[in-house]
Automatic annotation (TrEMBL), chains A, B:
Residue ranges annotated for the AMP-dependent synthetase/ligase domain, each copy included: 88-253
Keywords carried by this UniProt record: Ligase
Molecular function GO terms recorded: ligase activity
Species, as recorded: Desulfotruncus arcticus DSM 17038
Protein known as: Phenylacetate-CoA ligase
Amino acid sequence: MIEKEVWNEYWELMPEEEMKKIQWLKLKRILIFAYTSSAFYHKKFNEAGIHPDDIKSFADFSRKVPVTTKAELRSMQAEGYPLGSNMTVSRTEIVWITASTGTTGKPTYTCCTKKDWEMWMECAKRMFWLGGLRPEDTHIHALGLSNWISGISFATAAREIGATVVPVGVPTPVDRMLMLIRDLKPTSIVCTPSYAEHLANKCQELLDLKPSELGLRKFFCGGEPGASIPSFRRKMENIWQCDMRDLMGSPEMICGDLIECHLKNGFHIVNREFCYNEFCDPITKMPIEMKDGAEGTRIYTALDKEAGPLIRFDVQDQCQIMVAPCECGYPGIRFNVTGRYDDMLKIKGVKIWPSTIKDIISSFAPKLTGQFKIILQEKPELFTVTGPVKLKVEHADGLTDNDVKNIKKELVNSIRRSCLWAPENVIMSPPGSIPPAEFKAKYIEIDAN
Amino acid sequence: MIEKEVWNEYWELMPEEEMKKIQWLKLKRILIFAYTSSAFYHKKFNEAGIHPDDIKSFADFSRKVPVTTKAELRSMQAEGYPLGSNMTVSRTEIVWITASTGTTGKPTYTCCTKKDWEMWMECAKRMFWLGGLRPEDTHIHALGLSNWISGISFATAAREIGATVVPVGVPTPVDRMLMLIRDLKPTSIVCTPSYAEHLANKCQELLDLKPSELGLRKFFCGGEPGASIPSFRRKMENIWQCDMRDLMGSPEMICGDLIECHLKNGFHIVNREFCYNEFCDPITKMPIEMKDGAEGTRIYTALDKEAGPLIRFDVQDQCQIMVAPCECGYPGIRFNVTGRYDDMLKIKGVKIWPSTIKDIISSFAPKLTGQFKIILQEKPELFTVTGPVKLKVEHADGLTDNDVKNIKKELVNSIRRSCLWAPENVIMSPPGSIPPAEFKAKYIEIDAN
């Protein structure tokens, strides 16, 4: 590496072997903390018949300690806000509470102490730095600012790196966002991939400028799949003349901690000493064999979290592992997220991920706009879809009826080839009929009719 | 004072005489900085025929240095974003840019360097602490988070004090806001006064709870007049069983710096060593005689600002001075803001402030809801209103036609007594017909018909 390529050279560049020793010590410490300070974990460990002293190796840990699920977080929090029986610090030690954005039902809360906040900032700074953000950038924050973890924290971390932060947030009227971009000439932006696309479309429409003329060269995209889907990324990088990096966070642990390096070949984990990751079978929760291409769910343990520790939290992301060292020199394994086990659909026994469908549709650009909905008759139970599946797909402007008919046929064939399944009914929908998502795009719609 | 009543005892409690010496030294320094680093001020001073060395006393400063107006900020910024000819630092030294919320025309930008940010935080922490926020509070942020100065900065300052911050922001659906309040049991909130009223109304409607049952005991209100209007404050403190404090910021200087102590008798200035305040005649801009009850516009000079210094910035707030020492022991003068000179209306030669009308209407509670609009035929020029003035006032539920007629008569009389003027036409409007403002309430509407 030529210049300072990472934020914190000592910890980030530590060889995996040495890092494992740190992780092991911290793992023992957090198990003791959870068992002795969290009513939830004290009970959970007792019920599983385990004691921190029983855990003598990483293998012991994976074999003996049960996973923690999102459903458990929700029901434990219902026992008493904000952390229910996983309340491990006094209320006055908590300095920040964020709530998930879920609009239905109860939000889940994530709390942090002063030390948790510092850890969070450290992770976010490493993430942005590895992603290429530098003090000389003017950086526009175009994710939501309310509540959720990628809001104020991301804007603060970018400021602490020394970049010039413009904390706009969404929702903000898109004409105002574009005016600010035109005026302030930011070089960098963090937003969802669908917002990157929305901005590009509106730029042409409202400013009569090519997106590339705005000078935004660094796109940090997260919050939904997209930035690492090759066809989508190619399209955006071409339109904006930019470098697009996918990033992800671990909301329940409270940080943004995964980002692509300039080689864009999987997520690097920037916070190895704060987070122990296992990649496991989605059903048995036992570690899979670590080899290139292996697939499993990510299960993580927050090694330093004070307010509400999480032990073996099952993220339900479908990950594909790369163990071969990255040519960029950053240590540790990498992985791609290819779907979510809890978003996964089992249709007639076949596993289908909406992100795969998105990828296929994107490859039809510019004939298809990229907007689509998978319409089910009822909410899937244990991933399993009953009843016929409709796919509503938006086509571009200026096509003849015949063009549309042909694209539809090609699309169905393409889905069938990739997924070994195709929707019963594909509805080709005119441009503008499926509203572009400014937030986390939801690809599945339930419609009983 | 018994406990630590202020955040920074040394600077905040410094006797006025000693503080004046600090201010004088810093004033000399900032004059040199502005003259030697800002093209805008270099030119402005030259045109006024002054040189920093000419300023040998506070009196010289007031007499010789011209004021800076908001219009100047706007036009200088148009010369080149973000700070135009008042750009005093290199772009890479700027770490934060906020834009005013103005929806029409160009926003004005405020920038800060790392040091400016630290000053901003120091001011906001002093403000919240003097207002009674403590580490044991859970504090909900219910002002906007996007861009404007009272957003992320206020949430960050509350966190740095050690309070448990819930950064929700507005706009957020009010049912979600109430759910978070019910779940997390905050003891403190920062919001606009109109939002405090809106929340109270919705609390009864959506949760079937009295507002006081929610346990919010500290209301920090700013962003619009209201919290220090006696009748409004009495009503809110009674409904919520709370302690309501008015606060204000100096956006162009970048900080929140004015707040009431527990005696609630005018704003204390918490940042005397960062900001030199003059109270001047609104037309001549020369200092008024400092005695209790004197009225004038506030003109301030940011003594430490690195990115875009402001010398004699005319705030256009109509202030009423209190020079008698406050019984709380906090040093320095206090003042009330009784209107804005740029909001002021001259109707048939009489000066009328919408806030005075608001105050009168509030005194009719519960018969009037407090919602109202002043409707003009055209935008005033130099404060002067041409054509008849309509007043639209919302009355409460359950009144007979006769009640409404009588209230209208009383209201007109009351306005005439206080203002020596009354609107040509008062329209009594049914409850719910004037939407409650979730943001900065706008009291004036232009309607040519």
